[in-house]
Please model this.
Amino acid sequence: MKKKVGIAEGAAVVIRERGDHSVVHGRTSTSNMILLNFLIDEIVATLGEGAFGKVVECIDHKARCVQMLEWFEHHGHVCIVFELLGLSTYDFIKENGFLPFRLDHIRQMAYQICRSVNFLHLNKLTHTDLKPENILFVKSDYVEEYNPKLKRDERTLKNPDIKVVDFGSATYDDEHHSTLVSTRHYRAPEVILALGWAQPCDVWSIGCILIEYYLGFTVFPTHDSKEHLAMMERILGPLPNHMIQKTRKRKYFHHDHLDWDEHSSAGRYVSRRCKPLKEFMTCQDSDHENLFDLIQKMLEYDPTKRITLEEALKHPFFFPLKQEKK
Model:
């Protein structure tokens, strides 16, 4: 078996097999998470608890989370051994010249991502750092063929099975919530506006990931919060008034509207790079319509109105997967 070794600061997990169950012992140097989600997707019972960790009995239902195999100490570092995976979805796009994924592959990847992250949400966890770099293919083998339309070689993935990785910033509902979470391009509006966040911020990130898979590039190419909000408004329409009134980030607004000059160089950049969401569609058939309907529901400004992953898994975009299983 091939193994991949990673380094973690002050955290360790012990696994002991018990039939179809696993007993997982977590130890952390802080009150942070116990790394359970690397291995299992149902916590059956807490078997014991101490000052620095707990032992829980778990069942693995094959949630698409990276599995931890073992751990060991090396010169003061705790090393965690994970299963060996393929390229990240970002690296695959990059190595393929930023060409998008096929729609049928996006469907399969999206379903797995939603299922994996929904497992975290059911266990009162928020990932907080979902992005294409943290979605890895189980195997990133591909077929390469010449595309006469593009006049270049194009790689087509053989197997779209993925796993979600990097739980270093994952946060339980009852833990301290940092004000700023998520990588910029995948950051939800409630995070930018410091309105507090929970599981819906992961759903926003997934919406951003899916449109990036569809286009081959991010629709929010910025590192500035006000510009980011301007891009959102250009793509999704005006921010809700109740969110503007509630935020303490008053510097972004003037008279309850985004303080943004469309005629400035930054304004022209946003107008040039961004357009209403549905205008990014490259085809008008029902599959594309369903994908963009799902993305639009994930990119709902108000986190209380945003689609949940439980609901997303039942969206018509995924119906063809259920028909394939019959």
Observations:
- The chain has a mean pLDDT of 86.
